[in-house]
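Whether sequence alone determines local backbone shape is best considered at the level of individual chains. The sequence in question and its structure tokens are set out directly beneath this paragraph.

===
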Amino acid sequence: MKRIFVCLVFGLIANGVAQSLEPPVNYDITSDYGPRDVTNGTWFHEAIDYAAPMWTPVEAVEEGNISDIGYQTPPENGSSGGWYIKVSTGARTWAYLHLSTDVANDNPISPDTQFEIKFVTLENAANPVDIKHQYVFIFWFNRGLKKAQKVLAFLEPNKTWYVY
């Protein structure tokens, strides 16, 4: 099955940004934030799309906590957000969409094996019957030796979870 990847999108889920922020990647904008004229009226594009090559590392535009990781399936006659990560900074939430659209593969891995999306089972350390399934993004330092540089996961606050 062929993997299909699309450009990176990040969107702001909040009211306005008063400060100047660096973009998450250094690539050209392919679709800007704002209204669009379409055949049957106008719609609003709530993101900025970048022409980043597939598996490009993305830097958060603001420091914050991961509030959600998942896969957005396409609505009927619509386009998918694909794999996404949402980062909450307190005042606002940033959504990084179109990170990969590979759903045919249970654990999509970048061609250079540096990045991986993995579905894991988590067990609450304080309550072993409290089990949760979650997607995580793994940035490998050395995948063969199972040494991760960074793992991004959305976990419930104030709980200690173990991966098994």
User: Anything to note?
Assistant: The CA atoms of residues 136 and 153 lie 5 Å apart. The first strand starts at residue 8 and ends at 13.
